[in-house]
Structure formats: structure tokens, C-alpha cells
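Slide 14.
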Amino acid sequence: MATDLTRIGEKARGEPGLVFTSLYHHICDEDNLRVCYGTLGANKAPGVDGVTKREYGKNLEENLRDLSARLKRMGYRPGTKRRSYIPKGGQAKGRPLGISNFEDKIVEQAVKQTLEPIYEAVFEDSSYGYRPGCNPHQCLDRLGRTIQQEKVSYVVEADIRSFFDKVNQEWLVKFLRHRIGDERVIRLIIRMLKSGILEDGLVSATDEGTPQGSILSPLLSNIYLHYVLDLWFSKRVRRQSDGEAYYFRFADDFLACFRYKADAERFHRQLKERLEEFGLQLAEEKTHCIAFGRFARRDAQARGGKPAEFTFLGFTHYCGKTKEGYFKVKRRTSRKKLGQSLRNFSEWARKARRVLRKGEMIRQARIRLLGYLNYYAITDNTQRCSYYRYRVTQILYKWLNRKSQRKGYNWAEFNQVLDLLDWPSVSVRKDLNPFRREEAC
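Slide 15: predicted structure.
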């Protein structure tokens, strides 16, 4: 099956205009479904039916044969998704997720594995989110190099309001049909999109959007924005610009860089109309056109002010200087993300002290700190990371000593334990110096 999917990708790259008319048999193939079952994590949250991977695997072969048979005769019906929420800064309720039943996750994975090679062959290089071999650091690296080394003087930072909830499903299906000519695949995806959401005991229809939490959702969102934004920028906006124009997108977060102010302002004006044409809404309070680049500091100081900053992928980008006084793109953890991360850690520690032993609580806190540093410990950001490590250490000390009425550690003993468990230190884990020699692909 892997060989077949590789051939699909090669064919998609070789014939960019090809419409694939025979794909469905890959999705309902029993061996492919077995592979998809194996790729799913055992600790994922269950859906409405409460079935876990372990329970489904007790009669795996029988379940897969039955699932394959239902898919082949088009008798498969996705179950209702369970509404869940995860913390999100600025929202009391949090970010909404749609949790699929385990069997539905297998089918979603099968569809994703079948379609992904087709679209990976045509996606623009400006798209970095949820793609094989792509990550946020690559996007940040390319953005920093572009501003540092190219003729960039203006940045338009933009935000789409509730993107995943507002995707127009009719437009999405039209976009899919540009490359997918197998109507059985289209019908299956439509059923997935319209399976409904269960929340507070009530099932609501899903006539718009593609629920976050679904395995297929990131691919579908990339397909949607590929046609709505990526191609529009490369085929129209860049060609209409008098100067250089660059564009970067990670999932639904994106921004554009321009040499001339007129080009940036024109893009800013046209963006709202472009999004509304496809059922999306621009969050205008989070969308700005700012002067940013090698001359921004000089021009701002001439006006008696400071150069503007922008936030992208959790980092505030600002106009810094090298030791020699030359312009340099620098980044620090955004104030919002820093505060949110500390609140999340504090909430975790408060709950963990009731259920975990001290040693296990420290080990899990170490894993959380490592995860944070692996993302945020980049060039020019060690100061914010050191502050985060300091505050996390304080929070952990506080809640460990509230596990019982008797104080567990004094500060010296606590630090000895941290040393024994190799408590992470702050160092640059990802070199994103815009002057660095670019690594070969």
C-alpha cells in the first residue's frame, strides 16, 4: 500500500493538472486500515461511544473486516463527534475540539494517507503547517532571513476569525474536486464534515467548518487555504506588486512582507474582500500593516517613537541590533504566550500534587519544561526562557510543599533534587540567527 501511495504522489508531481478518479479502493483496503490502526496512539481521548484503541483491538481482525465491508458498499456512517475544550488565552471556555470515535479516526487516517501525497505535490512552499517535514522553526527561519536579507520594509500581520469553525463546506468540496474525481471519496468526506457535534447532551448539525481535533482537519484546512490564500498571493498579489513581496503561512496563521508601502496597503485592503468571498472573516483588530525592516528604527526615531513589532507563531518579532550596531531581526516569547504557559503550568502543578508522588511530579514537570524550551529556546530568546524556567521552578516548589501540612523541602534540598534529576538549563536549542549560513536541504 505504501508503494501505491508513493506512486500516487509521483503521478501528482509529474502531472499537476491530473484529476484522480480511482482512489477509494485505497481507503477501504483492509491492509491499509490495519496500518492506520497501528499509527493511532493508545492514549487518545475516546469519542461519543467511549471505545478506546485497546477495546477496539480485542477483536481487531473482525472489526477491520466489518469496517472494510461497510466502506466498500458505502454503508459506513461516521459517528457524531464529542465536543471538548482545551485552554486558550483570551477565551473563558477554551478552544473547541471535535473528538471522533476510534473507528472514525481509522477512516480519517486512511483518507489522509491517500490524499496527502496528491496535495503535497502542489502545495506552495510558503505553507508550513501540518505538513510532512515542515515545522514552525523552518517557517520562522525563512521569515527572519527574508526580512534580514531581502528588500522588506513593511509587514502585514493578519488573523482569520474562528477559521476552523467558519470553513465553507461547499467551497471546500469544490476545491477538492479540482484534484479528486472519485465521487465516493467526496461523498465520504462530506459525511465526515456533516456528522454533527454532541455537546451538553444535544447534537448540533455541522453545516460549516472542519472540527479541530479531527485527524483529517489539518489537511482539509491546508487545501482550503491553498486555494483561498496561497495561490492568490503567488499568482496575483505578487505579480501586481511593484516591489518584492513574500508570504508565510502556518495553518491559519499568516503574514506578508513587502518592499513598498503601497503594495502592503493594497494587500491589506484586498484581503478582507478575498476572505469574505469564501465565507471567512478577517479579525480586523488583529490585522495591521506596519513598517518593519532595516530602516524602521531610524524612521521611527525620526518621528520620536519606537519601531513597531509583530507577533507570529508565539514570538514577538522586533527590530534589534548586532553588537556592531547593524539591523537584526530578533524574537522573544510573546507576553501573551509566556503568561498563558505559566498559568497552564501552575494549574497543572496544583492538580498534580494531589495525585502524583513528589518524584513523579518533578519528573513530569521536567518533561514539560523541556518541551517548552525545545520550542522557545531560540536565538535571542534566552532571557525570556530563563525567566520562564525561574518561575516554573518557583511554582513547582510551592505546590510540592503543599502536598501535606508538613513542609516537604527547603530551597537547598529542592535544588539538590533538581540537580539529581538533571533539571534543564537554558541554552539555544534552535539556531535561528538570520546571518547564519543556510543549511542544505
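Speaker note: The mean pLDDT is 91.
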